[in-house]
Specification:
mainly beta; Jelly Rolls; nine-stranded antiparallel β-sheet
Amino acid sequence: MEILSPREVPLGGLRAMTVRRTLPQRQRTFVGAWCFVDHYGPDAVPVLGGDPQGGMVVPPHPHTGLQTASWLFTGEVEHRDSAGHHAVVRPGELNLMTAGRGISHSEYSTPDTTVLHGAQLWLALPDADRQTAPAFEHFVPEPVTGDGWEARVFLGSVLGSISPVRTYSPLLGAELRLRAGTSLRLDVDPSYEHGLLLDSGSLTVGDEALKATELGYLEPGRDAIEVTAAEDALVLLLGGPPFGEQIVMWWNFIGRDHDEVAAYREEWQRLVESGTADDGARFGLPQDDPMAALPAPALPTARMLKRG
Ligand code: MN
């Protein structure tokens, strides 16, 4: 097992929350099509005078060429996007936003949220599908349970549970909760690589230890993953066949080369500065958003390289 340790990254503006990012890393871009793993909390979210102070405050910002999967353990997040979706993201419910050719969205923890705890995950779209229309899907998996464990399979299938959510490449995404002393054998597709993000507790994978906040990577070629919890454990299991394409990932964009990503940035900046989208524009803005759109940072001075 390859251990990917998180680095702390501030998210959003002045009162930004800090997230633990385990993907991408210098040595690893993907687990299947999963290309971004941000993990946060549990964080107390103080609320003063009804204004969110801390918590998640991410004003409208763009995405291209990817899907975002929001998965919460505690708290609620309000989502608005330029494709007209307005939703509340709740624990145990998958909210899958397809950016496709271009979308913008905002995310704010709700005023009732006192503790925020969850993960934001990105999926790269294959080249053949990355210009698809923006979309937003909501799915609540029925938990499956056994002796000392409970699983919510939000994408793909494992432990006899199948998610009906359509994906653009074969994928696995599931939340696993194991009580202390529980061992569980997960039958998996040998063509898949896997990542186990341990939120909390203590986990052994085969005979190797995984610590809380680490992402353990397992290469393809195994038909089962055996996990044992020494303490109560909360785990996200991610998987998919190796993505097999190279991408350029910068800020909130995924493209295939430097020039394409630079053009996305320029188009977003035009919208931020003018405040109105032209007909046929790649990006629009969420309606009635309480905050102004986020300008993109400056492009790196060197050309961005493909990775993966
Ligand atoms: Mn986003």
